[in-house]
Amino acid sequence: MAHSFFCSDCGFESAKWSGKCPSCGSWGTLKESKTVLGKKGAASRRSTHDSKPERIIDIQTEGIARLATGITELDLVLGGGIVSGMLTLIGGEPGIGKSTLMLQLSQWLGSVEKKVLYVSGEESDQQIRLRATRLDVHSPNIWLYCTTDVDAIIDVIQQTNPDCVIIDSIQSVHIPSLDSIPGSVTQLMESCSRLARIGKTLNTPIFMVGHVTKEGLVAGPKIIEHIVDTVLYFEGESRGQYKILRAVKNRFGSTNELGIFEMTSTGLKEVSDPNHIFLSRDFAPHGTSIGCVMEGTRSFIVEVQTLATGSSYGTPQRVAAGLEQKKLAMLLAILEKNLALYLRNSDVFINLAGGMRSGDTALDLPILAALISSLKDSPLPEKSVFIGEVGLNGEIRPVSQSEARVKEALKLGYTSIYLAADSKLRSRKGVHKVKHIKDVYSLFA
């Protein structure tokens, strides 16, 4: 066995240990791993020469057959459904609904006569049976196997030949022949590699539940995410009502899509109209604006809430929920420079309603409009939507898919839409084009 060290944050490999990762700069993240080295024999040399290179234009391709899960939101995030042999890692906060989603996925697949093998390494069969009863999971095509032995799991997969395998969770299973504890770097790498190999060999899709660290990343080395085909994250408060499923890696589809679910007493339910989640029923007139974000092919109307008030301490607070802190600092600097608004003695708070998190640059304009509204203590025009990116000099820039954003706003009954003057959008009633942040400031004159 050869010894090496892997960074649990970025996956960097080193031959020796050090306190600080040379790649990402994290402290105390290099973990020892033992690599099993095999002997090179005639068989291995022979297998090397079995395959020959081909011209890429001569390779015959067939359409990827996808299996619909019965969950529209999950199919959307996966890129259209489950692909044969795909290895999917799903992570999220404890109690957010990962196991619930996997059990419901088993029920939906079982209802279309697909054989599902559900492997649990954390709970007993009685515990899972109680949760299955609460979630109304009763398909006779679901087979439960409680073990932590990866070799035993692979044997059962080969014997039963299921249509889908679910492992809850990857940190709880291990390979007995390796001298390391479950959840270590060596165990995670070898377990994922062996499961990926059996999945590709039998064309069996495998879903693995992964724990997350306090930083919100899937626990274990980053190299696990390189092994799997798809990485999904559950977002939202663990005690909150709504959950967002987002793909951060997908070899078979886009990573821009997201699915929205509602947690109920009987499990997760799809949200058919997500716009009502991100909008308050009672419209707050001061410090509130409406924006529109794009996530993949879907547009969402989002309420931006801001509050600017006098600071009671020496250093004013800057708090952003659903927005990057650096973005808030940049937008405040734009206000001070271009509108001569003095914010150095004001606490500033920004929140995206409904627990929404987005890095869409189209939120720049609604955030600044809401901040001006809060500072002026005056409401924005009723039923208005602001769409646009704001440059450092205060100029308003167009954003992608403006047509789709405007259509969504008009469909929901908004009558005044403010966007960049350079937007390639045909003139229509209710659409107002603005060039500079000063044009938005003039709305309060």
Short descriptors:
single chain, 445 residues, alpha/beta, Rossmann fold, Ribosomal Protein S5, domain 2, 3 domains, 11 helices, 23 strands, 27% strand, globular
Give an overview in words.
This protein has helices at 42-48, 72-78, 98-110, 125-134, 150-160, 185-202, 223-227, 325-339, 364-376, 402-411, 437-441; strands spanning 2-7, 13-14, 30-35, 66-67, 82-83, 87-91, 116-120, 142-146, 164-168, 206-210, 230-235, 242-250, 258-264, 267-270, 288-295, 298-310, 318-321, 346-352, 384-387, 389-390, 396-397, 416-420, 431-434. The strands form six sheets. It has a nine-stranded mixed β-sheet with strand order 8-7-9-10-6-11-12-13-14. Helix 5 (150-160) packs parallel to helix 6 (185-202). Helices cover 26% and strands 27% of the residues. It is built from eleven helices and 23 strands. It has 445 residues and is α/β, with parallel strands linked by helices. It folds into three domains: 1-45, no CATH class; 67-272, 3-Layer(aba) Sandwich (Rossmann fold), CATH 3.40.50.300; 276-444, Ribosomal Protein S5, domain 2 (2-Layer Sandwich), CATH 3.30.230. 36% of the residues are buried.
